[in-house]
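Hi, can you check this record?
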Amino acid sequence: MTKPVEGARQRTLLALLLISPKNVVTKDQFFEELWRDKLPGAPDNALQAIVARVRKVLASEFGEDFTRINLVTHPHGYSLDVEPDQVDAHVFSSLTAEAEARAHLHPEAARDLLDRALGLWQGSALQGVSGGLICESAATQLEEMRLSAIEARIRLNIEISGHASVISELKRMTSLYPWREQLSELLMISLYRTGRQAEAIEAYNHLRRRLVDGFGLEPSQNLTKCMMAVLRQDPGLGEPARNTVHKKAVTALVR
């Protein structure tokens, strides 16, 4: 849609219809998502009023015929009969699935698919929607898919262009999402492989401080193993570049 939908309840109603296009969303589901435990005195009438406003929005955007045919009234609810490939969230899911299938043999094509998928995002999932458990669950799932797609693209960039090409993005992502330890592990390994062993260890120490101070948690066993592998220059990490730091500097960083 070219124009944002005004009103949190209108946005929520439209989101519910688009989460599962062509499926009926029941009145009870609308009541729960739109009002939770604070139903209006005449909930059926209130729901119809919101649907009527959404009809006007869709008609102004796509035309009266589209709205009459596709926004369908059922005995116990409503459905929006559009194809999944007309909904960005479902296009994103399809592109990421295709990228995963092609990543092994065609990494550059897979990366292009992920670029297209991530380019669909224009903010957080279901931004401006004030729904209940259905909307919250969908938003959480979409955000997890977005972060997984970013991680997959970073791995492909490493395969195609090398570790140095992803360090800036990994630093930004680990700052935004310190609990995504796979990102921190990728950052540590990328720093190590480019001859920046001291920075790799400092990245671990910085993450540990954030986890302990912010969440009362220690890094996972896997991440700690990665740090120990960096310390002892484990051959399993691959050969670092030649400008590795002196052992005294490494020792000072981990005290």
Confidence is low (pLDDT under 50) at residues 243-255.
